[in-house]
Amino acid sequence: MDLAFIPSPSVGVVHLGPIPLRGYAFCIIIGVFVGVWLGNKRWVQRGGRSGTVADIAVWAVPFGLVGGRLYHVITTYEPYFGKDGHPLDAFKVWEGGLGIWGAVALGAVGAWIGCRRRGIALPAYTDALAPGLALGQAIGRWGNWFNQELYGRATDVPWALEISSDPAVGRVGGTYHPTFLYESLWCVGVAVLVIWADKRFRLGHGRVFALYVAAYCAGRAWIEYMRVDEAHHILGMRLNVWTALIVFLLAVAYLVISAKKAPGREAIVEPGVQEEAAAAAGGADAESAEPGKTDETAKSDESGEGRPGAKVSVTKSAGGEGAGDAVPGDGAAAAADTAGGGAKTS
To answer: How is it placed in the membrane, per its record (predicted)?
Structure first.
């Protein structure tokens, strides 16, 4: 009886003439666009300008790619700087090898630079971007499917991933746990959790981002434990498992401390947006008024002042002192009523 399984692509790259189109790269690019798109929507909902997230991403994305690659090369240096290694291969990002820990860490540095240039607080920006990061990771993980890499232990479950044999890279054919799929689905769940928690508890000051980090690390720890690719071990556990546990504890600590020191959510996330909205609203009100009529003229019309036949009446006392009130009336009749002594009101 044949087992059901998830097939792997026969090739991970298609050549369009001299131009190679790599599935891994496409997954990363699509993930970036989805993350920026969702981040922009959330930023506008929080009171920021549309386009600000993309402007800052111009700094964050390159830093993130460099950081992700550096983490991979440092923690898996043998293929590049070990015996029979090829140092130039460290630049071949398209062949796979981006560490999420380095990508987020150095990407945050790029985001910080972009935020400082715009006068924006980094925690507010990361809170808006957090669910988009999770969805971007969910899409980017499918790049491992194209490259047939980072799979789990051998298994015969119906959703097992079929891996083809490749002696050149030491890959043994068979069916394995699709850890790329597990992580992709987990990241979708993290995005949903973060969006829900943000709406339910009105998180702010970086706590949305901290929740994303903690939730991702919780899943990454057990998914990493299932993988069979070569990795450095510390006290019998893979390096990335330790990293996930440490980062998880740091994220939880930030959640607790931040909630005590800065409860609630930022009222203003981007300077000048409220003023611009108020000015735009004022301009719209002015355009809706009658041409050539000021607010004072409109008020005068409502009260009757300034109309033909309106006259200022004077209440005279015996001493000749009086006060004027504007009332509608016929001019001639009002003049006749002023005759006689004593006080008279028109």
So the answer is: Multi-pass membrane protein
Give the angle subtended at the CA of 37 by the CAs of 36 and 42, to the nearest 5°.
95
Angle (nearest 5°) at CA 22 between 21 and 27: 120
264 φψ region: left (φ > 0), alpha (ψ -120 to 50), beta (else)? left
| Digit-coded pLDDT (tens) for 238-261 | 999 999 999 999 999 999 999 999
Give the whole-angstrom CA distance, residue 180 versus residue 178. Answer: 5
Within 13 A of 315's CA, how many CA atoms are on the CB side?
A: 6
Nearest 5°: the CA angle 149, 152, 156 is 115
* b/e code 113-151 from CB counts within 10 Å (16+ = b): ebbeeeebbbbbbbbbbbbbbbbbbbbbbbbbbbbbbbb
Sign (positive or negative) of CA dihedral 6, 11, 17, 23: positive
∠ CA 147-148-149, nearest 5°, is 90
Residue with tokens 């990454």: 220
**DSSP-based three-state secondary structure for 336:** helix
- pTM assigned to the model: 0.79
Question: According to the annotation, is 141 in a ligand binding site?
Answer: yes
Please give the structure tokens belonging to residue 76.
């898996």
Give 47's DSSP letter.
Answer: T
pLDDT value at residue 96: 77
- Write out the E strands in the chain: 13-16, 19-22, 161-163, 174-176, 233-234, 237-238, 310-314, 324-328
Instruction: Quick: pLDDT tens for 287-336.
Output: 665 555 544 544 444 444 444 444 444 434 334 444 444 444 444 343 33
Residues 6 or more apart from 329 whose CB is under 8 A from it? 309, 310, 311, 313, 346
Looking at the predicted structure, is the pLDDT value of residue 39 above 90? yes
